[in-house]
Write a structure and sequence with these properties.
Elements lengths: L3 E7 L3 E8 L6 E9 L4 E2 L4 E2 H31 L5 H9 L5 H7 L7 H13 L17 H23 L5 H7 L21 H15 L8 H12 L42 H12 L16 H14 L4 H10 L3
Antiparallel strand pairs: 1-2, 2-3, 4-5
Helix pairs in contact: 1-4, 1-8, 2-4, 3-6, 10-11
């Protein structure tokens, strides 16, 4: 049997190859060539299609998470009796002219349940910039991250200076009263200065509004206010994955300890696909895409007991249909 050596040179827009006959004393190049393909770069290599896909993916996730927070907020306010379906319908049918004027008014005066619902949803959609880069450290940032961080810092500094110089009590009051935002509230490209409100400032405004409104609405107890704030501003760390990292029953927990070696990367462990554990993973992945509303507490949560019953049914019957899921959820008042 002849001994050949295959050499491959991989690039972002091509792959070069060469085949060498390595028989001793008869070494020779058998063949060589190059295969060209689209590199995924545009504008002379300055832009990458992967960046465009990442931007679109980020926008989709932002819309999805905003929608999720809004649904959680509405369900909680409905559950505690602050609003009813007619008020929610009124919110969708009667748009508010100036949300920032309404947010400023809510700091001092009583607003209607419909208006407070609109304020809370607006705060949920515009939560402010979370300065998470501070925890990373500039030494661990890429060039793109450093450039983005520098731009954000300038915007945050400009926001803080404007707030301090005019003694504004909240972000909403600043946007409503300051001349800088009379034409547009957005950071348009033709604006000389960018103003980036912080997550902390928006959260402080939400607390001030709710603390003022609770004197008019008894249902706005401290516990309910804390729950509302949690819905609007909670954000998990990306590295922790879905759910509470301290919860032993959270989604995906337990599969990381599966023993097995990857077919292609022999030193890397992987879970077995053709096993009961692999089937459980697939089912849990599907179940995690549903929303579970606990009708007793009004929380959106997959309770431990419900999860156990779903998995138990799957293991006993070797099948779990949508009808089965609905029936078991109904038994748990979910």
């Amino acid at each position: 049997m002849k001994n050949y050596i295959l050499g491959i040179d991989m690039g972002i827009g091509s792959i070069g190859w060469g085949l060498i006959d390595a028989e001793k004393g008869k070494e020779r190049i058998v063949d060589f060539g190059v295969r060209l393909f689209e590199s995924g770069e545009e504008n002379g290599g300055k832009d990458r299609t992967s960046q465009q896909r990442r931007a679109f993916r980020g926008a989709r996730r932002l819309i999805t998470r905003r929608s999720f927070r809004k649904e959680q907020l509405k369900k909680h306010l409905l559950h505690i009796g602050f609003v009813d379906e007619s008020i929610v319908q009124e919110y969708y049918e009667t748009p508010t002219d100036d949300m920032y004027e309404l947010r400023t008014k809510a700091l001092d005066e009583k607003v209607s349940p419909r208006d407070l619902l609109a304020i809370l949803i607006h705060l949920s959609n515009h939560r402010g910039y979370n300065e998470f880069y501070e925890d990373i450290g500039e030494d661990n940032m890429s060039e793109d991250m450093l450039a983005e961080n520098d731009e954000d810092k300038l915007g945050v500094d400009a926001f803080k200076k404007l707030m301090s110089a005019n003694n504004y009590r909240s972000v909403g009051e600043m946007y409503y009263k300051d001349e800088v935002f009379k034409i547009s509230k957005r950071n348009l490209s033709n604006k000389a200065d960018k103003y980036v409100p912080t997550r902390r400032a928006v959260k402080e405004e939400a607390i001030k509004i709710l603390e003022n409104q609770k004197q008019y609405y008894r249902v706005l107890s401290e516990d309910n206010i804390q729950r509302i704030i949690s819905i609007i501003f909670s954000q998990r760390d990306f590295e922790d994955g879905p759910g509470d990292k301290n919860d032993p029953y959270r989604k995906y927990k337990g599969f990381l300890d599966s023993i097995g070696k990857c077919l292609f990367y022999g030193d890397d462990e992987r879970g077995f696909r053709g096993t009961v554990l692999g089937d459980l993973y697939a089912v849990c992945n599907t179940l995690s895409q549903y929303t579970y509303l606990d009708k007793t507490s009004g929380e959106i949560v997959l309770k431990k007991e419900l999860a156990n019953d779903l998995i138990y049914h799957l293991l006993i019957n070797a099948n779990l249909t949508v009808t089965d899921v609905k029936r078991i959820c109904k038994e748990h008042n979910t």
